[in-house]
Specification:
Layout (H helix, E strand, L loop, with lengths): L2 E10 L7 E6 L21 E3 L1 H9 L6 E5 L7 H13 L3 E5 L4 H6 L3 H9 L2 E4 L20 E4 L18 E5 L5 E5 L3 H12 L2
Parallel strand pairs: 2-4, 4-5, 5-6
Antiparallel strand pairs: 1-2, 1-3, 6-7, 8-9
Helix pairs in contact: 1-2, 2-4
Length: 200
């Protein structure tokens, strides 16, 4: 089954613990106010990929310990994501995944694909971005309502260390001169950074 994605990078140091691959899915049914990535909302504007191609890239990338999946909204493509993520976990990689839906709402939906994805996660982060609750006191999340579930022993030790983990960003300059930024920072700083990079 095909996936609609916005981007995929094989190695990042800012999208969760350790070195990880990162997959941004395309398409979002939640569309939070003041979202930092509204370009990921429209599913039709994504790139269509065969998950087996992503699995080959993961297998060929040394040094990564897991993959982080965000969006867009991953649960909107649960049927396509679940078999892909099952194979990711079977390979020994860890899984960190973000959803704008709460864990309770997902489980109460009765969708076995969505429930299966949650069950696979080492770290599951839930809840929509809420502009009025904007906070960068914790790593990886942008508002105080969002919850970080450490669901396995693999990263359980980080639960008491969140206050020591800083949000970071990466700036990537491709061979064609295009510039991409990933990571977590306040939107105002992100826009300022983007303006500055545009002057290079």
């Amino acid at each position: 089954m095909e996936l609609y994605i916005n981007d995929f990078i094989p190695v990042t140091a800012v999208e969760g613990p350790g070195l990880r691959a990162c997959l941004w899915v395309q398409g979002c049914s939640i569309r939070c106010e003041d979202c930092m990535v509204p370009h990921t909302w429209d599913k039709s504007k994504g790139k269509v990929v065969d998950p087996s191609t992503l699995l080959q890239t993961l297998a060929a990338t040394p040094g990564i310990e897991g993959i982080t999946v965000l969006g867009g909204e991953p649960m909107d493509q649960a049927a396509a994501l679940l078999p892909f993520l099952e194979r990711v976990k079977a390979s020994g990689l860890s899984l960190m995944l973000f959803s704008g839906y709460t864990k309770e709402a997902i489980l109460e939906s009765g969708c076995h694909y969505k429930a299966g994805i949650i069950a696979l996660c080492d770290i599951f982060i839930d809840g929509p971005y809420v502009k009025a609750l904007t906070s960068f006191d914790r790593p990886w999340v942008g508002s105080g309502n969002q919850r970080i579930f450490f669901q396995t022993e693999r990263y359980k030790h980080l639960e008491e260390q969140l206050h020591t983990i800083e949000n970071k960003v990466e700036i990537r300059i491709a061979e064609d001169g295009s510039i991409a930024v990933n990571g977590m920072m306040p939107k105002e700083k992100f826009l300022e950074l983007r303006r500055s990079l545009g002057k290079i």
